[in-house]
C-alpha cells in the first residue's frame, strides 16, 4: 500500500507538468482589438498546479474587489477548472463555497454515493482502494476508461453540475466570459486547445493526470493533462484578442541542494524544471503576474484546511499588486463597484443546484452523485496495515453472467495472518432479491484472553457453505434467511492450567449445521465516521450437528443485537450512543462459537467478535453479554476525526446473574485521518479487566 500511496502522490504532481512543444487548434478568426465599449480587452491566465490551483480563487476575489473586468480566461489543469466555472458566471465567493463544500477524497475517486447503494455495495466500496472494470473479448480494444487508476466518474459529475446550463456542445466564446483550456494529445505529443465542445469534458481532459485519471478519448485523440504542453497559456490568451494579461501562477519554487534529499523531492524538481520550458516565454507577455506562495502544499493537498489556506494565500499574493490593479482599472475607465455586466446577467439564470451559499441563504453547494448498476466485470484490490496483523492484502473479482435470469459470480482472496478464500454465486431475478450460495475457507490463529491473561491459543481451519434462499436488499435494509454448514479442523491448541479453559482440551474436529435469520439496517452517512443516521443489526441462529439436535440435546440458540444512533450537535461535533449484546442458550458452547469482545471493529478476527472500548485483545466472556457505549466524535476538519469512547458491560452465564458480576468498564481516545486509502490513525485505551493500557494503529480500510 505504501508503494501505491507514493505512486499516487508523485503522479499528482503532474497537475503542474512539463512542456515540450505546441500545436494549437481552433484559434482561427480571433484577433486582437478593443471591446465594444472602446476599452482594451483584459485576459486572465490561470496555471496548472492541482490542489495548489485553489489559490486562483483568492486572486479572483481581489480582482473582483478591485473592479477589474475579465474579458477572456485561459487555463490549464486546475486553472481550467477554476477558470471554466468562473467563465460560466459564478463569482469568486461562490467558487470558494463550492470547493469547500465538496468531499474531495470522494470526488477524486470512482466510489459511488452511499445514499444510493445497497449495504452489500457500500461495504465493498469501503473495503477496497482500487476498483477497475474488466473488458473481455471483442470490446477489449474499445475500452473507454483505460489508462488510469481513476475513471473520473465523480469529478465528471461535479463538472457537469457546475457548468450548467452549458451542457451542450457550444462555442466557448459565447460563455459569459470567453474561455479556452489546454490538453495534451498523447497520440502525437501535441497541444490541443479547446475553444468549443462540451465544456465539462474539455475541463476534464485538461486535468487528466497521466496514470492517475483515465484520459479523455475523442476524435482519435487521447487527451491528458495540458500541463504536459502548456502549463501557463498566456499565448492562447493573446491569440484570443487580449491586450492586457493578468496571470496567476501557483507553481512551486525550485528546491535547493539541501532540500533535494528524497526520491519524491528529486522527481518534483524534475517536473518543476520542465514546467519552466514555456513559462518564461509566456510570462514575458504578461502585464501583471500574481505569483502565489504554495510552499508546504502539493498538487494533492485537497484537505479543507489546505484549500482554505491556499485561497487565503492567493488573496494575499493578489493584494501585493493592489496599486497596479487600481491603476489598471483607472486606465480602463471602468466603474470599480460594478461586477462584470455579462456575469450579472447570467447570475439570474443559473440553476439552483450550481449556486453557492451566498445566493441560497448560505446553504452548502453539494452535488448528488447517483449510483449506477454495475454490470461490467470488476476487479477490486485492498491493502491495510495494523500493529497486530502487520500487512494484509485482499482482492475481489466480480463477473456478471448475462442470462435469462441475471447472475453474478464473485471471487475473493485475503492474504495475511488470517487467510481467507471465498466464492459467491447469486441470482438476481429482481433488483432487490438476491439468493446467494457461498463457499468460504479460513485459516486462523487466535489468542484468547481471560481478564487480560492468555487463556489459550487456537490454530484452526474453517470450511463454510452458506445458502441464503431469501436475501432482500433495498438501499439501507438487508433481510436474509438461510442455512449454513461450518466445519472446524483444529490444527493445534494450547491451554493454560485453569479448569474452565481446559474443558475443550480434547476438542475434536466438528461440523455444525445452523439456521440463520438476520436483519441489517444502516442509514448512517459514513461507513466509518458517521454524523447522522442509525444502525441496527439483529440476528437469530440455531446450531445443530444433525439438522435438529446438537450432541443429542437441543441445539445452541443465539440472539444478538447491535443498535447505534447518531446525534449531531453542531457542524463538527456529534454523539453516538450504542447498545449491543449476544445471548447463547446451551449447556456447553464450543469455543469457536463463544462470546468474545475487544478490538476496534466488529468481526475483525472472529464473526462473533464485538468491539469494546479499552480492550485490545480477544477477551472471553460468559454466554450472556450486554453492553453500552457512548462515543463523542469531533471533526477537526472534514477528514481529521477525534473519537472519545466510554463503554460499560455485564456478562454472566444466566441473565439472573448479570448484576452479580463485576461491571466491565473501558475507555479509548482515537485519532483518524479519513483518506482515500481508508482510516489512517490509531487508538489508546484502558479497561478494568486487563488493567493495562493498550494501543492500536490502523492504516487502511478494514477487512
Walk me through this protein's architecture.
- The chain starts with a helix and ends with a strand.
- The chain is elongated.
- Helices cover 19% and strands 38% of the residues.
- It is α+β, with helices and mostly antiparallel strands and 703 residues long.
- It has 13 helices and 35 strands.
- It has a 16-stranded antiparallel β-barrel.
Topology record:
Blueprint lengths: L1 H11 L29 E5 L8 H12 L5 E5 L1 H10 L4 H10 L2 H4 L11 H7 L4 E5 L13 E3 L2 H10 L7 E2 L7 E7 L4 E5 L1 E2 L1 H8 L4 E3 L2 E3 L2 E5 L8 H6 L4 E6 L13 H22 L3 E4 L12 H16 L2 H11 L8 H7 L29 E10 L3 E12 L5 E9 L3 E9 L8 E15 L2 E22 L2 E19 L14 E13 L11 E11 L4 E2 L2 E2 L1 E10 L1 E2 L4 E13 L10 E2 L11 E2 L7 E3 L3 E12 L4 E13 L11 E12 L2 E10 L5 E7 L4
Helix pairs in contact: 2-4, 2-11, 3-8, 7-8
Amino acid at each position: 500500500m505504501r508503494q501505491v500511496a507514493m505512486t499516487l502522490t508523485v503522479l499528482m504532481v503532474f497537475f503542474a507538468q512539463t512542456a515540450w512543444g505546441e500545436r494549437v487548434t481552433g484559434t482561427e478568426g480571433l484577433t486582437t482589438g478593443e471591446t465594444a465599449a472602446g476599452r482594451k480587452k483584459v485576459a486572465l491566465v490561470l496555471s496548472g498546479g492541482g490542489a495548489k490551483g485553489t489559490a486562483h480563487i483568492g486572486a479572483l476575489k481581489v480582482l473582483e474587489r478591485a473592479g477589474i473586468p475579465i474579458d477572456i480566461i485561459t487555463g490549464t489543469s486546475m486553472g481550467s477548472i477554476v477558470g471554466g466555472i468562473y467563465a460560466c458566471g459564478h463569482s469568486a465567493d461562490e467558487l470558494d463555497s463550492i470547493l469547500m463544500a465538496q468531499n474531495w477524497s470522494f470526488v477524486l475517486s470512482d466510489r459511488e454515493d452511499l445514499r444510493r447503494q445497497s449495504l452489500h455495495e457500500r461495504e465493498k466500496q469501503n473495503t477496497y482502494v482500487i476498483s477497475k472494470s474488466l473488458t473481455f473479448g471483442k470490446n477489449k480494444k474499445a475500452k473507454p476508461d483505460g489508462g488510469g487508476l481513476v475513471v473520473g466518474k465523480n469529478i465528471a459529475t461535479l463538472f457537469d453540475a457546475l457548468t450548467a446550463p452549458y451542457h451542450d456542445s457550444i462555442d466557448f466564446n459565447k460563455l459569459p466570459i470567453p474561455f479556452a483550456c489546454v490538453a495534451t494529445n498523447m497520440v502525437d505529443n501535441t497541444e490541443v486547445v479547446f475553444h468549443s465542445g462540451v465544456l465539462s469534458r474539455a475541463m476534464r481532459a485538461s486535468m487528466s493526470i497521466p496514470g492517475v485519471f483515465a484520459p479523455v478519448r475523442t476524435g482519435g485523440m487521447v487527451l491528458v493533462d495540458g500541463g504536459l504542453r502548456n502549463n501557463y497559456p498566456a499565448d492562447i490568451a493573446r491569440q484570443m484578442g487580449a491586450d492586457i494579461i493578468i496571470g496567476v501562477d501557483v507553481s512551486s519554487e525550485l528546491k535547493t541542494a539541501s532540500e533535494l534529499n528524497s526520491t519524491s523531492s528529486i522527481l518534483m524538481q524534475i517536473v518543476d524544471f520542465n514546467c519552466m520550458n514555456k513559462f518564461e516565454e509566456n510570462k514575458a507577455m504578461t502585464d501583471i503576474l500574481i505569483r502565489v506562495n504554495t510552499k508546504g502544499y502539493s498538487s494533492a493537498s485537497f484537505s479543507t484546511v489546505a484549500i482554505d489556506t491556499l485561497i487565503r494565500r492567493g488573496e494575499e499574493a493578489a493584494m501585493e499588486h493592489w496599486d497596479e490593479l487600481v491603476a489598471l482599472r483607472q486606465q480602463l475607465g471602468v466603474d470599480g463597484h460594478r461586477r462584470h455586466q455579462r456575469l450579472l446577467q447570467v447570475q439570474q439564470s443559473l440553476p439552483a443546484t450550481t449556486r453557492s451559499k451566498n445566493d441560497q441563504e448560505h446553504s452548502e453547494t453539494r452535488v448528488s452523485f447517483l449510483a449506477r448498476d454495475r454490470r461490467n466485470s470488476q476487479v477490486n484490490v485492498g491493502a491495510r496495515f495494523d500493529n497486530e496483523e502487520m500487512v494484509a492484502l485482499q482482492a475481489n473479482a466480480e463477473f456478471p453472467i448475462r442470462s435469462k435470469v441475471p447472475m453474478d459470480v464473485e471471487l475473493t482472496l485475503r492474504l495475511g495472518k488470517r487467510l481467507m478464500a471465498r466464492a459467491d454465486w447469486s441470482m438476481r431475478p429482481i433488483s432487490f432479491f438476491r439468493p446467494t450460495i457461498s463457499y468460504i475457507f479460513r485459516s486462523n490463529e487466535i489468542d484468547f484472553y481471560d481478564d487480560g491473561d492468555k487463556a489459550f491459543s487456537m490454530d484452526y481451519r474453517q470450511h463454510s457453505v452458506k445458502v441464503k434462499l431469501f436475501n432482500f436488499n433495498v438501499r439501507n435494509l438487508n433481510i436474509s434467511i438461510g442455512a449454513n454448514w461450518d466445519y472446524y479442523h483444529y490444527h493445534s491448541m494450547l491451554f493454560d492450567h485453569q479448569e474452565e479453559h481446559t474443558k475443550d482440551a480434547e476438542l475434536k474436529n466438528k461440523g455444525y449445521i445452523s439456521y440463520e435469520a438476520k436483519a441489517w439496517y444502516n442509514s448512517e452517512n459514513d461507513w466509518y465516521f458517521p454524523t447522522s443516521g442509525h444502525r441496527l443489526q439483529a440476528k437469530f441462529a440455531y446450531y445443530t450437528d444433525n439438522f435438529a439436535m446438537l450432541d443429542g440435546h437441543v441445539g445452541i440458540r443465539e440472539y444478538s443485537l447491535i443498535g447505534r444512533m447518531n446525534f449531531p450537535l453542531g457542524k463538527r461535533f456529534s454523539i453516538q450512543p450504542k447498545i449491543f449484546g449476544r445471548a447463547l442458550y446451551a449447556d456447553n458452547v464450543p469455543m469457536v462459537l463463544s462470546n468474545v469482545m475487544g478490538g476496534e471493529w466488529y468481526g475483525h478476527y472472529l464473526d462473533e467478535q464485538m468491539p469494546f472500548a479499552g480492550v485490545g485483545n480477544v477477551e472471553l466472556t460468559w454466554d450472556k453479554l450486554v453492553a453500552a457505549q457512548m462515543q463523542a466524535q469531533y471533526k477537526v476538519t472534514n477528514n481529521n476525526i477525534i473519537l472519545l469512547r466510554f463503554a460499560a458491560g455485564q456478562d454472566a452465564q444466566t441473565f439472573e446473574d448479570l448484576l452479580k458480576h463485576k461491571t466491565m468498564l473501558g475507555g479509548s481516545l482515537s485519532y483518524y485521518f479519513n483518506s482515500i486509502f481508508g482510516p489512517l490513525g490509531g487508538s489508546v485505551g484502558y479497561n478494568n479487566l486487563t488493567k493495562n493500557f493498550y494501543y492500536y494503529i490502523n492504516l487502511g480500510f478494514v477487512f
